[in-house]
Each structure stands twice: as C-alpha cells, then as structure tokens.
C-alpha cells in the first residue's frame, strides 16, 4: 500500500537487531504490522483481509479502493 499512495509510509525493522523496538511493540512473531500505534496485525494475510484489519473494518464490509 505504501508504494501505491504517497500518504502512506512504511518501515521494516529486523526484530533481532532492534530489541528496544521489539519490546516496545511486543513482537512475538513476524510479520507484525502496527498501524498508527493502535492497530496490530500479526502474521501474513491476503491483501483484502489485511486492508480490512488495517482499517478495523468488520468482516462483512468490503474494503473500498479509491
């Protein structure tokens, strides 16, 4: 998503090299995605499910694309 929209930024961090961030975000598995410091997504998801989780959408509401 970050590559498709200039308003989205993303950073990748090697959890074993940055233990302070690992502790701060309570990383117990990878991949772990943290959205705006509030939404946490653990594991790999299909794109539609990831977007739904990142936007905190109910399972029955389809994500919209602009």
Principal-axis shape equals: globular
For the largest beta-sheet, the strand count, sense and barrel status come to: 2 strands, antiparallel
Number of helices: 2
Computed over alpha carbons, the radius of gyration is 13 Å
The helix fraction, in percent, is 10-25%
Find the count of extended strands (DSSP E, 2+ residues): 2
Strand order of the largest sheet: 1-2
Which consecutive residue ranges, at least 5 long each, have pLDDT under 50? none
Describe what you observe in this structure.
With 66 residues, this protein is of the alpha+beta class. It has one domain (1-66). The protein is 21% helix and 12% strand. The chain has a two-stranded antiparallel sheet with strand order 1-2. The radius of gyration is 13 Å and the shape is globular.
Write the layout of secondary structure elements.
Elements: H1 19-24, E1 32-35, E2 39-42, H2 47-54
Antiparallel strand pairs: 1-2
Key terms for this structure?
66 residues; alpha+beta; two-stranded antiparallel sheet; 21% helix
Structure in a nutshell:
The chain has 66 residues and is an alpha+beta fold.
């Amino acid at each position: 998503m970050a590559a498709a929209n200039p308003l989205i930024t993303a950073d990748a961090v090697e959890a074993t090299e940055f233990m302070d961030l690992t502790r701060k975000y309570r990383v117990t598995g990878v991949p772990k995605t943290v959205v705006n410091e509030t939404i946490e997504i653990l594991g790999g998801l299909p794109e539609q499910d990831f977007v739904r989780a990142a936007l905190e959408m109910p399972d029955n509401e389809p994500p919209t694309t602009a």
